[in-house]
Write a sequence for this structure.
C-alpha cells in the first residue's frame, strides 16, 4: 500500500528539556503531531548531547489522555468540563469575594514546575498580585530555602548561590546529594557522569557523605555513612581540624570579607572527638578529608537535599560556605564560582528582589517569612485555625503539596474544609482533586521556554531559547493567558486600576537587554542550540550585591544556631535507638507527577522502603514483605527491601508516591501507587532557623503487618 499523499513530512526541532535543573538540549524528530524520536542535542554547549529517560516521557505527557485540556468544575464529587470564560469568571468572582472579606484569607502555593516554566515565572504575579495576600507559599520551604537564606545574608542576593566549578575542581566533597540520579541541583550539571570521568582523568577525587550508598557514592573515590541530621558536626569537625592544623588560607577574598575570624573563633571551642562521635564518622577520616580538601589545587564542598532539608539545614549551608571561603576556594577556578547568566536576575536593571527575612510571620506558629513567602509546613494549621487571617481560599499553581509537604494527610483533610480552591495544573491528582475549579495550561512542548532560573546555577554560562515544538491544540490556553485572564477580571471586580500585562516573551526580551550581556530574544532565536557564554570565572567583589561590596561571613543568627546545635552534641544515639527516615530520588521518577508515564513506571517498583539487613532481622521482618512504618504523625504500609545500601538505623523511602486516593484521574500512576513519605514527615520538625521542613532524619518505627 502506498502512503496517503497527505502524510506530513518529518521535521527536526531543537528545544530544551524543562523537567529538571539540568536543562538538557533535545532533538525531536516529528511527523505532524506525532513524536517519532527524542534524543540529546549534541550541539547544546551545556548538555552536549546528554539526555535521561524522563525526557523521552515528554512524549507521554503530551499524548497522555489523562492530561487535562479544558477547565473543569467540581460539583460535589463530579467533574464537569466548562468553557474558559465561565471558568475565569467563576474563579475571579470567588477570589474577589474572599479578598473583600480579608486579603490574607486567600493563600497561594506554587510548586516546583513553576520555576521550570517561564509563563508562570513571568506572569503568575499578574493573577496573584491583585489579591495582596501575605499567605504565599511554595516548594522553596521543602527544598532550597537554607541556600537562598545564606546567599542573601552572605552575598546580598537570594540567587547568589556559589556553584561548583566541576570542570576544573580537583577535590569534590559532596554531602547529601545524588547527582547521578537527580542530574544535579543548585548545580545545573547535565551529564554528571562524563564530567566526573574528566575529573578523575585529571587526577581529581570525589568524596561522598551520605547515610545511603547512593548511585553517586558508587562512583566516588570514597563514601562515608553519616547519621542523618548530623552533618553540622562533620562540617564543624572539618573546620576544627583546619583551624588546629593551621590549614586555612582565604586568599584574595579576605580583602572584602567581614567577620570571618569571628565566625572561626566561635567554632574553635568544639571538640573533634565529640563531633566525630555525634555524626558517626571517625576522627581520622575527618582529619584526612580536612587535609586533602585544604591541600587540593581547587576544592569544592557542596551539599544538597540531604543537608538542606534537615533539622540544621541553614547551619549546614553556612558551614559549607565557610569551608569554601576560609580555604580560599570561593570565587576561585576549581572551587566555587558565581554565574553570569544572560538574563541576570542578580545584577543590573533586570534584577529581582535580593530577598528578605522575618518581615512577617505565620499567624498561628510565628514561622518567618523569606522573600515574601511563608514556610509551607504551616499551611494546614493556617487553614484549620479560626480567627482573622484564617485561610479560606487557595490557589495552587503547578504543585502537589498533599504529596510533597510534611504531614500531607493533615493538609489533604484541611483542603476539604476550604470555601474555594482553584488549581492551575495539568492533572487531576492528590491535591487538585480538592479544587473547585482546575484551569489546565498547555504542556511544555506547546509553548516557548527560556530558563530564567537555572542558568543562574549552571556549571557553564550558556543561554538557550526554545520555540514550541507544536502549536497549542484548539481550545487550549497557555498558562500566561490563564493568569492574565483571571488577573484582569479580578482587578475589575476589586476596582483596582488595570495593570500592564506584558507577555512572557516581552518580559524575557527586556530582561535580556537590560542584563550586562545585552542579548535579545531575536539573537537567541537565531541560535536554536543555545549560545556558549564561556566558563565560570571569578566575579567578586564586583558581583556582590551588598552595597559595600563585601561578604558577610558571620550573619548574626548563625551564632545562636551554633549554640543550639552544640546542645545536641551530648545525645549520641545509642545503637538500640529508633530508626531515622530519609528520602531518595530515582532517575526514572520526578517528584510526584511523572508516574503516569508507562515507560517510567515499568519494570521493578522503585518506591520500596530500603532497610539494613541487621535492622530487618532484629525486628523479625521478612525481606520483600509489606511493613508498617509509623511516625509521630502517621502510618503507612509499604513493601520493604533489605539492603546494605543504607546504614544500620536508617530507612530510605522516596517521596511523591501514594497515588491511591479516591477521585484522582491518573490511570497509570494509580496502578503503581506506592505510599507517601510525607504521610510520615512531621510539620513541626523543621530547620529551626528558616522554617524549612526537615524531611530527612524523621524518627520512625517499622513493624510487621
Ligand atoms: N519527603 C520528601 N518530600 C519532598 C522532597 C523530598 O526529598 N522528600 N522533595 C521536595 C522538593 S525538593 C520539591 S521541589 C517538592 C515538589 O513539590 P511540588 O512542587 O508541590 O510537587 P510536584 O511533585 O513537583 O508536582 C508538580 C505539579 O505540577 C503539575 N505540573 C506539571 N507541569 C506543569 C506545568 O507545566 N504547568 C502547571 N501549571 N502544572 C504543571 C503536576 O501535575 C503536579 O501537580 O517536593 C518536596 N517534598
Ligand atoms: N530523577 C530525578 N531528578 C530530580 C528530581 C526527581 O524527583 N527525580 N527532583 C529534582 C528536584 S525538585 C531536586 S530538589 C533535586 C534534588 O537533588 P539531590 O539533592 O541531588 O537529590 P536527592 O536524591 O534528594 O539526594 C539527597 C541525598 O541525601 C541523602 N541524605 C538524606 N539525609 C541525609 C543527611 O542527613 N545527611 C546527608 N549527608 N545525606 C542525607 C540521601 O540518601 C540522598 O542520597 O533533584 C532534581 N532532579
Ligand atoms: S536530565 Fe533533566 S533536563 Fe536532562 S533530559 Fe533528563 S529530565 Fe530533562
Ligand atoms: Mo526540589
Amino acid at each position: 500500500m502506498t502512503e496517503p499523499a497527505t502524510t506530513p513530512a518529518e521535521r527536526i526541532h531543537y528545544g530544551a528539556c524543562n523537567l529538571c535543573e539540568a536543562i538538557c538540549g533535545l532533538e525531536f524528530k516529528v511527523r505532524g503531531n506525532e513524536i517519532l524520536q527524542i534524543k540529546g542535542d549534541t550541539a547544546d554547549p551545556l548538555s552536549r548531547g546528554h539526555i535521561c529517560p524522563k525526557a523521552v516521557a515528554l512524549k507521554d505527557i503530551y499524548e497522555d489522555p489523562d492530561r487535562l485540556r479544558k477547565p473543569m468544575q467540581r460539583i460535589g464529587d463530579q467533574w464537569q468540563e466548562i468553557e474558559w470564560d465561565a471558568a475565569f469568571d467563576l474563579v475571579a468572582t470567588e477570589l474577589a469575594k474572599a479578598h473583600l472579606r480579608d486579603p490574607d484569607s486567600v493563600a497561594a502555593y506554587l510548586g516546583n514546575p513553576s520555576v521550570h516554566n517561564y509563563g508562570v515565572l513571568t506572569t503568575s504575579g499578574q493573577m496573584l498580585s491583585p489579591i495582596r495576600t501575605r499567605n504565599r507559599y511554595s516548594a522553596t520551604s521543602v527544598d532550597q530555602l537554607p541556600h537562598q537564606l545564606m546567599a542573601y545574608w552572605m552575598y546580598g542576593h537570594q540567587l547568589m548561590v556559589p556553584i561548583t566549578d566541576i570542570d576544573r575542581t580537583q577535590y569534590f566533597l559532596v554531602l547529601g546529594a545524588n547527582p547521578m540520579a537527580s542530574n544535579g541541583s543548585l548545580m545545573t550539571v547535565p551529564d554528571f557522569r562524563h564530567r566526573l570521568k574528566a575529573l578523575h582523568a585529571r587526577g581529581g577525587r570525589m568524596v561522598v557523605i551520605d547515610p545511603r550508598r547512593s548511585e553517586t557514592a558508587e562512583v566516588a573515590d570514597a563514601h562515608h555513612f553519616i547519621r542523618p541530621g548530623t552533618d553540622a558536626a562533620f562540617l564543624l569537625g572539618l573546620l576544627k581540624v583546619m583551624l588546629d592544623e593551621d590549614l586555612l588560607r582565604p586568599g584574595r577574598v579576605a580583602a572584602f570579607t567581614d567577620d570571618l575570624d569571628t565566625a572561626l573563633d566561635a567554632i574553635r571551642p568544639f571538640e573533634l572527638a565529640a563531633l566525630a562521635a555525634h555524626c558517626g564518622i571517625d576522627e581520622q577520616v575527618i582529619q584526612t578529608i580536612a587535609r586533602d580538601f585544604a591541600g587540593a589545587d581547587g576544592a569544592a564542598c557542596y551539599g544538597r537535599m540531604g543537608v538542606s532539608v534537615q533539622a540544621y539545614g541553614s547551619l549546614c549551608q553556612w558551614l559549607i560556605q565557610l569551608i569554601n571561603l576560609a580555604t580560599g576556594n570561593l570565587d576561585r577556578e576549581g572551587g566555587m564560582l558565581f554565574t553570569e547568566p544572560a538574563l541576570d536576575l542578580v545584577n543590573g536593571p533586570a534584577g529581582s528582589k535580593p530577598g528578605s527575612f522575618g518581615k512577617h510571620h505565620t499567624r498561628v506558629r510565628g514561622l518567618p517569612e523569606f522573600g515574601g513567602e511563608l514556610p509551607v509546613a504551616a499551611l494546614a494549621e493556617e487553614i484549620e485555625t479560626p480567627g482573622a487571617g484564617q485561610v479560606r481560599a487557595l490557589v495552587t499553581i503547578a504543585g502537589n503539596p498533599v504529596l510533597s509537604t510534611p504531614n500531607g494527610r493533615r493538609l489533604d483533610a484541611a483542603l476539604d474544609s476550604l470555601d474555594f480552591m482553584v488549581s492551575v495544573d495539568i492533572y487531576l491528582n492528590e491535591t487538585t482533586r480538592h479544587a473547585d475549579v482546575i484551569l489546565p495550561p498547555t504542556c511544555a512542548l506547546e509553548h516557548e521556554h527560556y530558563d530564567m532560573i537555572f542558568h543562574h546555577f549552571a556549571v557553564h554560562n550558556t543561554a538557550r531559547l526554545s520555540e514550541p515544538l507544536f502549536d497549542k491544540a484548539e481550545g487550549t490556553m497557555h498558562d500566561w493567558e490563564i493568569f492574565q485572564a483571571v488577573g484582569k477580571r479580578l482587578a475589575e471586580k476589586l476596582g483596582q486600576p488595570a495593570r500592564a500585562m506584558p507577555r512572557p516573551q516581552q518580559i524575557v526580551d527586556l530582561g535580556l537587554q537590560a542584563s550586562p550581556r545585552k542579548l535579545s530574544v531575536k539573537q537567541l532565536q537565531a541560535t536554536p542550540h543555545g549560545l556558549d557564554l564561556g566558563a565560570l570565572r571569578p566575579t567578586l567583589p564586583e558581583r556582590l550585591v551588598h552595597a559595600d561590596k563585601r561578604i558577610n561571613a558571620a550573619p548574626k543568627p548563625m551564632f545562636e544556631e551554633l549554640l543550639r546545635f552544640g546542645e545536641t552534641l551530648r545525645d549520641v544515639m545509642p545503637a538500640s535507638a529508633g530508626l531515622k527516615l530519609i528520602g531518595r530520588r530515582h532517575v526514572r521518577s520526578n517528584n510526584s507527577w511523572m508516574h503516569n508515564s508507562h515507560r517510567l513506571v515499568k519494570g521493578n517498583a522503585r518506591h520500596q522502603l530500603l532497610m539494613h539487613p541487621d535492622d530487618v532481622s532484629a525486628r523479625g521482618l521478612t525481606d520483600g514483605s509489606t511493613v508498617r512504618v509509623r511516625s509521630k504523625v502517621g502510618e503507612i504500609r509499604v513493601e520493604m527491601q533489605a539492603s546494605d545500601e543504607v546504614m544500620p538505623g536508617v530507612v530510605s523511602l522516596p517521596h511523591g508516591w501514594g497515588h491511591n486516593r479516591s477521585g484522582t484521574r491518573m490511570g497509570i500512576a494509580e496502578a503503581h501507587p506506592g505510599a507517601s513519605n510525607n504521610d510520615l514527615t512531621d510539620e513541626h520538625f523543621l530547620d529551626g532557623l528558616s522554617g524549612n521542613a526537615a524531611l530527612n532524619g524523621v524518627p520512625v518505627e517499622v513493624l510487621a503487618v
